[in-house]
Amino acid sequence: MATPTDIGTRRELFVDQALVERLTGGAQLRLHQPIPQEVSLSHDIPWEGSGSGYHSVFQDGDRYRMYFKAYEISPLREADRNQPEVHPLFCAYAESDDGIHWRRPELGLHAFKGSTANNIVMVSGRQGSLFVDAGHPAVFRDDNPAATPDARYKAILRSDTPEGPRGLLAFKSPDGLNWTPMADHPVITNGAFDSQNLAFWDGERGVYRAYWRYFDRGSSDQPYVGVRSIRTGTSKDFLHWENEADVVFPDAPPTHLYTNAVKPYHRAPHLLIGFPARYVERELKGTMDDSRGKAPPEKMQQWSPSMRALPDPEHRRLRASASERYGTALTETVLMASRDGVSFKRWTEAFLAPGIERPGTWNYGNQYVAWHVVETRSELAGAPNELSFYAVENYWSERGSTLRRYTLRLDGFVSAWAPMSGGEVLTTPIRFSGDTLTLNFASSVAGGVRVEIQDEAGRPLPGFALADCAPVFGDAHERPVTWLSGARVGTLAGQTVRLRFELQDAHLYAYRFAPAAAAPSASQP
After folding, report:
1. Whether residue 366 is found in the same domain as residue 460
2. What is the dihedral sign for C-alpha 501, 505, 510, 512?
3. What is the predicted pLDDT for the residue at 82?
4. What is the per-residue pLDDT across 203-236, written as a single tens digit (0 to 9) for each?
5. Structure pTM?
6. Which residue of 119, 275, 341, 383 has the smallest Cβ count within 10 Å?
7. What backbone phi and psi angles, to 5 degrees, belong to 142?
């Protein structure tokens, strides 16, 4: 018999198949895609620009915070490094009361062209013995109970200059606005780092965990040649890192991943969910190193009809004149999830594709998702909260990059689904400690879900057979399941069981054995 998984009262999603033993009938796991909403920010002010990106977003009490790279990419400078930058790389800040409407406060911290009336919180340049690249920021609120007040907020920045050591720098802040380095040297040095590298407090495991840009060496003898990949490590104090390992994807083929955007999912923090940017070179032949030169006009004329039909052809050709891959590489976001932080289930289909062709899309830099998702109110009156994602458009365009919000139902990354003809999901053996089984699900009027609780050998437990289950239909985030026998789930807590879900024209996004409700007070009837 398989070793049971103790899920306690935690919420289980279908982002991986760790607790799925088999799918039968028409049942399948179906990946869902976020729905586009409004533009949250247009990076069209002088100290931001077309290269703005690498956003970090999180809810902090009754305020939402956002940090991002503020930069202007000049195609002329990409073609000729002797050309001056429009302005240095900054880390800028925005905030919101609802995660939907964003504002840039005038912080008065750093001068831009003689004025401190801006939202800049960190600047690139030398700070003591460090050379700080403020344009590759990843910022989070540290919920480690041992975090000191002066380090309630932390950040990972990059040091990448011939003038000093190369790697990742640890920064701290008491208020999320005023930042100081935590060490006079990079704290992680084994990597490539040309991406949004990040770290966070993993409360489920009691450690800090970092994820950073790496190149899979493969069979090459040269360092950092091969597939753009991800490396991870852990730390007890944010300064001394250990247990370094390459992130692996046992069931997915190699592909270039530019970012990682990994963090515990707040409604199921035992699950680490990431939104890496998948990088695809559609027109280039040969190895990565073969693509570094400028593309001559005759090469551009050989682009496929689909490449030539994509938006912004003139700007695409301008990019390619600096390096062909700048014009022909495309990016989108995929979904990955892990229970141990190293081995990830990566879905091969796109989680956030570029969508309908329009200016500022279908290019290199498109659909990089901010780190990480937050809950926001629904635009539908009376509806529960939903998840908000933020993704980059217009990257490296003449218009300046923009950040668009997308929404998804809570836990709605992946569902177990079956058509009206029906299908079933059987879980692996589990143990739980709650007293009510609840479902996050959606069905048609004619469809629904029924649940059977089995013993470890697959036999229905008395009172919990499929025929005893009252059909569950509707569309809710936490609907209790009941059995006509009146049997109570709490009597099975601590036992090894299996769950058999019967689905008809229904999506099942998550399930949970919720803890017992608080006892009624003496004043209640």
Report:
1. no
2. negative
3. 59
4. 999 999 999 999 876 544 444 457 899 999 999 9
5. 0.93
6. 383
7. -90, 110
